[in-house]
Amino acid sequence: MNTKNDKIELGDICINVAQKDIKNVHLSVHPPIGRVTVSAPLRMTLENVRLFIISKLGWIRKHQARMRGQKREAPREYVNRESHYYLGKRYLLKIVEQNSASKVVLNHDVIELCVHPNAIKTQKEALLQAWYRQQLKEIVLPCIEKLEKKMNVKVSEVAIRTMKTRWGTCNIKAKRIWLNTELVKKPVENIEYVLTHEMVHLLERNHNEKFIAYMDKFSPKWKHLREELNRSALGHVDWSY
Q1: What range(s) does the YgjP-like metallopeptidase domain occupy (predicted)?
Q2: SS3 state at 71
Q3: Domain 83-240: what homologous superfamily?
Q4: Beta strands at 176-180 and 157-161: parallel, antiparallel or unpaired
Q5: Which tens digits make up the pLDDT trace of 68-108?
Q6: Could you tell me which of 189, 164, 192, 190 has the C-alpha nearest to residue 177?
Q7: CB count, 10 Å around CB of 104?
Q8: Which helix (H) or strand (E) holds 176?
Q9: In whole angstroms, what is the distance from residue 103 CA to residue 96 CA?
Q10: Which phi and psi (to 5°) does residue 189 adopt?
Q11: What are the start-end ranges of the H helices in the chain?
Q12: For the chain, which residues make up each domain, given as ranges?
C-alpha cells in the first residue's frame, strides 16, 4: 500500500498524518496522553486534511482531557494486604515465604504469592505478571475458538505482553493477536470485547461502517463495554472517530 506521511500542527496539538489508498478519513486519539493520528485518502490535499482536523478540534480536546484525567493504578510494592485485581475483582496480596518453588495461589479473596524468604520486589512482580499472562491465555483460548466459528476466521497465534497504549492489536497478514496483560484484571466480558475487536480486523482492516456492523453483530454490547474500559484504571483503548 502506498503511504505518504506528514505532520500538521494546530496550536499545542501535533497530528501525525498518513495518506493511504483508502476511501475515508480516520481520526484517532490515542491514550495515555492523547496522541492524535489521521489516516486520509491519497486523493485529499494536506490542506483539506487540515480543515477536517480543525472541524474536529472540539472532539479531539474532549477525548484528550478524558484520557489525561483517567484513573491510574498506584505503583505496587508487592507487600502484604496490598490490593491487586483479577477478572474485575479486588484481592488482597499475601506474601508466603517458603523454600520450595515459587508460585501464585488464588485463595478466596486473597492472592498468595509464595516466594523464597529473600525474594525482592522485582522477583515478586515478575512472578505475579507471569501468572497473569498464563491465566489470560487460558481464558482467551476457548473464546478464540468460539469466535472463530462465529466469524469464520482463523487466528494463527495469540500472545500476551505488556502494552503501554493498547488493550490489544492484530497483525492481519500473520493473523496474530496480541493482548495486553492488564486485561486479566478486567471482567471477562471486557476481555471478550477486546478479543472480538481484534478478530474483526481479520474481516475488515479499517474502523469504518463495515467494521462497526461486524462489531454490532458479534458483540452487541461493545459500545457499553468500551465505555467501561475507558472509565477503568489503566484504560488504554484507542478512541476512533
Answers
A1: 26-231
A2: coil
A3: Metalloproteases ("zincins"), catalytic domain (3.30.2010.10)
A4: parallel
A5: 766 666 778 999 999 999 999 999 999 999 999 999 999 99
A6: 192
A7: 19
A8: strand 176-180
A9: 10
A10: -60, -40
A11: 46-55, 57-68, 121-151, 188-200, 209-218, 222-231
A12: 3-68, 83-240
pLDDT digits (tens, 9 = 90+) for 109-136: 999 999 999 999 999 999 999 999 999 9
Closest CA to 199 of 161, 163, 156, 239: 156
Strand partners, 176: 157, 171
**Would you say 98 and 90 are in contact if contact means Cβ atoms under 8 Å apart?**
no
pTM above 0.90, yes or no: no
Hey, is 53 helix, strand or coil? helix
Question: How far apart are alpha carbons 24 and 82 in whole angstroms?
Answer: 48
Omega before residue 32 within 30° of 0, cis: yes
**Are 225 and 190 spatial neighbours (Cβ–Cβ below 8 Å)?**
yes
The predicted model gives 63-68 an average pLDDT of 78
The Cα–Cα gap between 47 and 53 comes to 10
Give, in order, the Cα–Cα distances in Å from 79 to each of 7, 32, 45, 114, 122: 46, 27, 56, 12, 12
